[in-house]
Specification:
This protein is α+β, with helices and mostly antiparallel strands. It contains 14 helices and ten strands. The strands form three sheets. Strands 4, 5, 6, 7 and 8 form a five-stranded antiparallel beta sheet that branches. The protein has a three-stranded antiparallel beta sheet with strand order 2-1-10. Strands 3-9 form a two-stranded antiparallel sheet.
Length: 374
């Protein structure tokens, strides 16, 4: 079984956390505090800038389409929950300082595997650094709130029992354990940097291409030098990773990627990692991320993973599951005791549901009208 690394932020959408724009009409009032149309619009803009939304059929992007109505309802519900949480934070004097935010960010990067992957996800979802900092601050506060209101501790017995009762989930494919050093060398990124630096537009297309190639050659020269050092003394691979690797998430751990199945990595990377023997330094592997130097340190055959190998992962999963359940109970309680008024009826989830049912009824009627008579 391969557990998804859960963060408390996964209990909500990244879209949940957004700043309030002043001087805007309230669409909902929660315990006397306004949720504004500007807040709603800000989140909806993020949705519309998402690559998945942009690739959706045009008829699904209409404001009255089922997809958009469901999105509207979700955003309204999330904003209500956000407001209730903000009120609870103030009531309990819960805050998040810069050190806590930084530590949580590094934890997320570690779970994702690299800072590059973290930034790539932000870019794909059109999430700014400012917004992700706000999101992480909210996650820190949510953790504190859960710890203050619920018992989410997981015992060693809980972990062992889960393993014994779910052994079929721990049948892994063949895996390798490896470390890597990444020398970033993305032609498009390099090209953009060169163009951005050419403020007066003096460089021709040929000049730019030449500079890109020169930069790539320089990166490759560095990669070859680092690999030579690793081959000469594989025991220093971790030190070299900390010094040279552009994958900052793993560089801090000496490039350690842990155990992973073939499909977890980009094909060019996995093909090499699964073809070399343990304690072997690979040739330079070129992927879209750049130049990789791989050191395979162990192999695990397909089959049941031993308890010792997965107990940390199980404990993390059980803790996160408890936290999410505790959060849901907390939300339910806060909403039950809250005074929520919909200043604009079109944002009332009940009215949105009526629209959705109307859409479904109309679709059924259209389908019947199109069905040929027998």
């Amino acid at each position: 079984m391969k557990f998804t690394k859960l963060f408390l932020s996964a209990a909500f959408s990244l879209l949940l956390f957004s700043g309030c724009t002043p001087n805007n009409k309230a669409i909902v009032t929660v315990n006397g505090e306004a949720v504004t149309r500007a807040e709603f619009n800000e989140i909806m803009d993020i949705v519309k800038n998402n690559s998945q939304f942009k690739s959706a059929p045009e008829d699904q992007k209409r404001d009255d389409s089922p997809m958009m109505l469901m999105t509207k309802e979700r955003i309204v519900q999330d904003l209500i929950v956000k407001k209730l949480l903000d009120q609870e934070y103030r009531k309990r004097k819960i805050t998040a300082n810069d050190a806590e935010i930084k530590a949580k960010k590094q934890d997320i990067i570690k779970q994702l595997g690299s800072e590059e992957k973290f930034n790539e996800i932000l870019k794909q979802n059109n999430v700014s650094q400012r917004r992700i900092k706000e999101d992480i601050a909210n996650e820190v506060k949510i953790n504190k709130l859960v710890e203050a209101t619920s018992d989410v501790k997981v015992s060693d017995k809980d972990v062992k029992d889960f393993y014994n009762n779910n052994k079929e989930r721990f049948n892994y494919p063949e895996r390798v354990k490896a470390s890597h050093i990444l020398i970033e060398a993305n032609p498009e990124t390099i090209k953009k940097a060169i163009i951005d630096a050419d403020k007066n537009g003096k460089l021709s297309a040929a000049d730019i291409d030449k500079k890109v190639q020169e930069a790539l050659d320089k990166k490759m020269t560095l990669a070859k030098d680092v690999r030579a050092q690793a081959v000469a003394n594989p025991k220093k691979f971790g030190e070299l990773a900390k010094k040279y690797s552009d994958d900052k998430g793993t560089a801090q751990k000496g490039g350690d990627l842990g155990f992973f199945p073939r499909e977890a990595m980009i094909k060019e990377f996995s093909d090499v990692a699964f073809s070399i023997k343990p304690d072997t330094v690979s040739d330079i592997v070129v992927t879209r991320y750049g130049n990789h130097i791989i050191l395979v340190t162990d192999r695990a055959a397909a089959g049941l993973a031993p308890f010792e190998q997965v107990q940390g992962e199980i404990k993390s999963y059980l803790e996160q599951s408890k936290k999410i359940n505790a959060l849901q109970k907390l939300f339910d309680g806060l909403k039950l005791n809250a005074k929520i008024e919909f200043n604009d009826p079109s944002f009332d989830p009940e009215n949105i549901q009526k629209q959705l049912r109307g859409e479904a009824s109309q679709a059924d009627a259209d389908q019947k009208n199109q069905t040929p008579a027998k």
